[in-house]
Design goal:
By secondary structure, the chain is mainly alpha-helical. The protein has eleven helices and three strands, in the order ααααααααααβββα. The longest helix is centred in the first third of the chain and has 22 residues, at about 60-80.
């Protein structure tokens, strides 16, 4: 995949892919320092192979370290502003969900980052281009490379990172919720001694592999919320969410 021709007057082997411009167009950023992008794409297995041949090569591990921190700052700023009424625990849960290995690997897949990686022969044979542990690290390294190349400003990074993060938050919210509505409702109910909150399964439908459950939240046997979900837990959360509206929740 790489260009194996030698650089003029240096004797160094160029490892840069011939179609690097395609990746730059995909991410919407053109590097001033192409070496930064090259390093971000170089896995340690490839770096070690080149060093064994006497060729200087830096892997993306240091960039990954920096990218992890930069990503956390950008995401933290966004969710702190976006979810202004949520407490620290919920903000932490949101951030963890969108910067975990699984999420980062998904972002990498969207831009086909694995296609551009420099891997050693062993990792290539082991399917390293699609391994979440490798592609997620490379995505963090790419973030750091952009950060350094653009003068350590997060402005351009936000335009690159946030579309992935916002989509991931939307996808998670469609399946469940970052907010524990049941706990929030319980905290309100327990302010009055003797109140009894129950979640009652009142119906289920659909085939075994795709069931829909319906649950009612009842306070002292009085209906205060109803919810549906693909699991009983999801239905209970939705029932609690509806009940919170009665108590002035959002």
């Amino acid at each position: 995949m790489g260009n194996k021709s030698k650089k003029e007057n240096t004797g160094e082997v160029s490892k840069y892919p011939l179609d690097h411009a395609l990746l730059e167009r995909t991410i919407g950023y053109t590097f001033n320092n192409k070496e930064l992008l090259e390093t971000a794409l170089t896995h340690s297995s490839k770096s070690n192979e080149l060093r064994n041949k006497g060729i200087a090569s830096e892997c993306n591990e240091r960039l990954e370290f920096l990218g992890d921190s930069v990503l956390s700052i950008v995401v933290s700023q966004y969710i702190y502003t976006k979810y202004s009424s949520e407490q620290e625990g919920t903000l932490t849960k949101i951030r963890s969900s969108v910067v975990c290995e699984k999420a980062l690997a998904k972002y990498a897949e969207k831009i086909h980052l694995g296609d551009y990686l420099y891997l050693g022969h062993g990792e290539e044979k082991n399917g390293g281009r699609t391994l979440p542990s490798i592609t997620s690290d490379a995505f963090e390294a790419l973030i750091a490379a952009i950060f350094l190349d653009c003068g350590q400003s997060t402005e351009k990074l936000r335009g690159f990172i946030l579309p992935f993060v916002i989509d991931e938050i939307d996808n998670i919210n469609k399946k469940s919720s970052f907010v524990d509505h049941k706990t929030a409702l319980q905290q309100i109910i327990q302010q009055v001694e003797g109140e009894k909150l129950q979640y009652i399964l009142v119906g289920e439908s659909g085939p075994d592999h795709n069931k829909t459950f319906e649950v009612e939240a009842r306070l002292n046997s009085n209906l205060i919320g109803r919810g549906k979900g693909s699991t009983k837990r999801e239905a209970e959360q939705n029932a609690a969410k509806e009940a919170l509206v009665l108590f002035g929740g959002n």
